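User: Quick sanity check before I run a bigger batch. Here is a single chain. Can you write out its predicted 3D structure?
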Amino acid sequence: MRRRERIPVVVQGRRGRRPPVARALWTGAELAVTCGVVLLLLVVHQLWWTNRQAQGAARDQVDRLERQWDDPGPRPGGPPHTGPKEGERQRADAATPRAGPPRTAPPAPRAAAPPPRDLAYAVLRIPRIGVTAPVAQGVGKAAVLNRGYVGHYPRSAQPGGAGNVALAGHRNTHGEPFRRLDRLRPGDTVTLDTAEARYTYVVRRILPRTTPGDGTVIDRIPHSGVHPSYGFTAPGAYLTLTTCTPEYTSTYRLVVWGVLRSAQRR
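Assistant: Done. Predicted structure follows.
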């Protein structure tokens, strides 16, 4: 009779606990991976989601403003206009003697009164860098800049007015309307559309870098107190665009100056 062979059974003992150094390293590695994932999500949120959200909101605001200007409806503060039609007014003017020489050109459009703070009331267009963005009164981050808007410094001139129309915008994140502001060159055009008129400015001078405290760049006669060779010395109708530089930092400010070339009534 054949004898059966027994198969040996190997019983493994319990694994010993990791030494404290190994446990500390393992915990540190897990924390590092978790922090890395969180940081990656924050970067995606800042560089992608905030741009997507703000750019969409800014486009919607531009559309609303343009529809409002195209069909303003009855103006508040008085009854609808009931005066003579254009042809009747021209015939009446022709039959009425005038004192002095006739006017050969209409007066330039007057700048609008300051709108309420944080309200979008104009549209900025910069063809060279493909910018179309709403302009709101004020430069607060939460209420204006982080919504993808360009902010208007409240104490500066209104579009088309004498003095200096000073605007600010994000260069990175939250719509980044001034992302490529450094690509502007003298001779480029910038337009500001309002309910009253379109104002066209021509870029004249560019200050590539100055300190955040160089506040004279948005003065009525804009100039740099840090770099005296940059700026203007005579009164005029100016436009100033400001943003942070270099990209992804707020260490310095990039400044673009323009002068008013034309104003066209709506």
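Strands lie at 120-126, 131-137, 150-152, 163-168, 189-193, 197-210, 237-245, 252-265.

User: Great, the batch can go ahead then.
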